[in-house]
Amino acid sequence: MLAAPTKARLMRELGSLAKDPPPGIAAYCPDSDITQIRAQISGPEGSPFEASKGGVFLLTVSIAGRYPFEPPRCRFITPLYHPNVDSGGRICLDTLKSPPAGSWSPAVGLPSLLLSIRSLMAEPNPDDALVPELADFYKRDLKGWEREARRRTALDATTDKLEKAESVLNGEVEQGEGAVAENGEGKDEAAVDAKTDGSAAGDTTKEGRPLEEKREENGREAKRTKC
């Protein structure tokens, strides 16, 4: 249960998000639990995730009991082909980490935090990557990474898939219907696998390797990073 000052602050921030939302961001509580927030983030203009190309990304925000002295836990539900976001939707961003590892401060509010996440989408930080293989690809072949990011955005970040992901989080459909919960920390922290269009058993990477094999490798690499 939230302390009264924490609840009051959170209500103010949610009110601000509703009345004056940051550009490209719509945040809301799906039910009466104000500690479980969802945000729809439009892909930044000029990025491979651009909203005009269909890029709309679902994010969950879980408020910790010690907020604002502890940062919220944020995860992308919509898959994001990004060096700082892993296959489970976890995000490597200084603002999401407490000192000394990160730069979280009680002065940071939800509107500015969500803006920071959207800015990270437009400007990846390959030197603080969560997925080393994607960071290497980004550094080695930026145009190639952008092409693949655009392709995956067109497949994964559609309105239809966002609505399906919302339904899964709401418990309206079974997770087996094109969505898999990867994180057992609560329904709004479940990472929904929306890669149904590109994850058939016979799919391969550009290098000819099975996608499942490559994802497993990415997962092992991610565990070795500081994020």
TrEMBL record:
- Where in this chain does the record put each UBC core domain? 5-158
Q: Which SUPFAM superfamilies match?
A: UBC-like
Can the keyword Ribosomal protein be found in this entry's annotation?
no
Q: InterPro entries annotated for this entry?
A: Ub_conjugating_enzyme, UBC, UBQ-conjugating_AS, UBQ-conjugating_enzyme/RWD
Q: Where is there biased composition of kind Basic and acidic residues?
A: 184-196, 204-227
Q: Looking at the record, which segments are called Disordered?
A: 171-227
Record's compositionally biased regions (Low complexity): 171-183
Q: Which GO terms describe its molecular function?
A: ATP binding; transferase activity
Question: Catalytic positions?
Answer: C92
- Cite the entry's keywords alphabetically: ATP-binding, Nucleotide-binding, Transferase, Ubl conjugation pathway
Similarity-based family: Belongs to the ubiquitin-conjugating enzyme family.
Query: Mind telling me which PANTHER family this protein's record contains?
Result: UBIQUITIN-CONJUGATING ENZYME E2
Query: What is the protein named?
Result: UBC core domain-containing protein
Native organism is Thalassiosira oceanica (Marine diatom)
